[in-house]
Amino acid sequence: MLSRTKGWLVAAGLLLAGGAGAQTPDLKAPDGFKVTVFAEGFEQPRFMAVAPNGDVFVSDPRAGTVVVLPDRDGNGRADGKTVFASGLNRPHGLAFQNGFLYVANTDGVVRFAYKTGDTRASGAARRIVSLPPNGGHWTRTVVFGPDGKMYVSTGSTCNVCVEEDGRRAAVWVYDADGKNGKPYATGLRNAVGLEWYGGALYATNNGRDMLGDDLPPEGFYKTRAGGFYGWPYCYTTRPGQPQVWDQDFGRRNAGVCRAATPAFALTTAHSAPLGMAFYDGKTFPSAYRGRMFAALHGSWNRSTKSGYKVVTVDPRTGRVSDFLTGFLRGQSVLGRPVDLAVARDGSLLLTDDGEGRVYRIQYTGN
After folding, report:
1. I need a surface site. Which of 142, 178, 240, 249 has the fewest CB within 10 A?
2. Half-sphere exposure in the Cβ direction for 10 (13 Å, CA)
3. 15: Cβ contacts below 8 Å, ≥ 6 apart
4. Residue 291, SS3 per DSSP
5. Domain that includes residue 125, residue range
6. Which is nearest to 44 in space by CA: 22, 68, 72, 65?
């Protein structure tokens, strides 16, 4: 069992932007973990992918770039930042597969030829999938499954509605070249985080707004081909239990909710779970191996803010536990966690698009 004792970790000397009176975050994590800055100076660092040689690639949608962060000397801090590709349309999700870097722009998936060690694209991007752009949720996420297929998530245009475009509020599956696309999982309002683990595709999901501070809880889903997960008709209030009807939408049809697969784990409403990573490194204590780490970006419309932290989720029991806090001091926001990736050295990397940083989390045992 994981220890519930927490230790204070101060990222010394890291003054956050915000002018006079800017505050330094006291990052609270389990005893024995150390948090440092891996890289900074981004406009909007979002999703990451680790290249075959260990270089870390980061999307920066506001800048329209994908940036490479090598750490060739292994000192736990990026040697520098190199722009791999620019002029992209709000790039977000990244994935490496069979000699290509795939980039999920807001209007489609493109890919670049990639050779191990490349830090700049050798040619232009080739679009292989077109997607409906922007909308209420503009991010697009791309991952590859053990079957070699490409899985792409696209969020809804709205808070709650019936979408006209079936690619919205869903995960679609394609061949690696972008052909033969079809729905894989539907009824996911905004599945920003996608990760394969143990032969299953897991997804985070951002629930609807305007039902008060506590409804609906944010969900973590274990998806399957052809699965339906409730939105816009219903949502999960208890992990693994039948979903409940959304009283503010449409005509009651209990059968729709009975057919919807519920979330296997829940966290506070409006906390906005985004990226996640299953820990498969070898440097964390064994209790963390196979555990989902998820970034809660934080609420925008809750009377008392929720999220602004990293949690762990046990994929077997659905138990959700705080792992890294301190991005919220009282009601003052000191950072907004976005995505997690396991680095080649076993550390855990975390993007913060509120302050333009990438953090490195390592277990030292001290």
Report:
1. 240
2. 5
3. 22, 24
4. coil
5. 6-363
6. 65
Query: Which long-range contacts link 160-169 to residues 24+ away (Cβ below 8 Å)?
Result: 160/189, 160/208, 160/231, 160/232, 160/246, 160/248, 160/249, 161/232, 162/232, 162/250, 165/132, 167/131, 167/132, 168/132, 168/135, 169/231, 169/232
Alpha-carbon span 50 to 191, nearest angstrom: 21
DSSP state of 121: -
Query: b/e string for 180-206 if b means 16 or more Cβ within 10 A?
Result: ebeebbbbbbbbbbbbebeeebbbbbb
Residues 5, 193: Cα–Cα separation, whole Å: 28
Q: pLDDT per residue over 260-274, tens digit each?
A: 999 999 999 999 999
Backbone angles phi, psi at 109, to 5 degrees: -100, 130
Do residues 282 and 299 lie in contact, with contact meaning Cβ atoms separated by under 8 Å?
no
- Tell me, what CATH number does 286's domain have? 2.120.10.30
What is the count of structural domains for the chain?
A: 1
Question: Within 10 A of 344 (CB to CB), how many other CB atoms are there?
Answer: 15
What pLDDT does residue 250 have?
66
Flag whether 321 is in a domain.
yes
Secondary structure of 35-92 in the HEC alphabet?
Answer: EEEEEECCCCCCCEEECCCCCEEEEECCCCEEEEECCCCCCCCCCCCEEEECCCCCCC
In a domain, 1, yes or no: no
Question: Which residue shows structure tokens 């040697």?
Answer: 79
Q: Can you tell me the distance from the alpha carbon of 272 to that of 153, in angstroms, rounded to the nearest whole number?
A: 16
Three-class SS of residue 255?
A: helix
Asked if the structure places residue 302 within a domain, the reply is yes
Sequence-separated (6 or more) residues with CB below 8 Å from residue 68? 51, 55, 56, 57, 81, 82, 83, 84, 119
- Report how far residue 326's alpha carbon sits from residue 342's, in angstroms, rounded to the nearest whole number: 21
Angle, CA 291 vertex, CA 312 and CA 59 arms, to 5°: 75
Is this model's pTM higher than 0.85 or not?
Answer: yes
The pLDDT tens digits for 246-298 are 988 866 777 899 999 999 999 999 999 999 999 999 999 999 999 999 999 99
Q: What token pair was written down for 209?
A: 């707004």
Convert the pLDDT of each residue in 65-85 to its tens digit.
999 999 999 999 999 999 999
Kindly report the CA angle at 71 between 68 and 75, in degrees rounded to 5?
A: 150
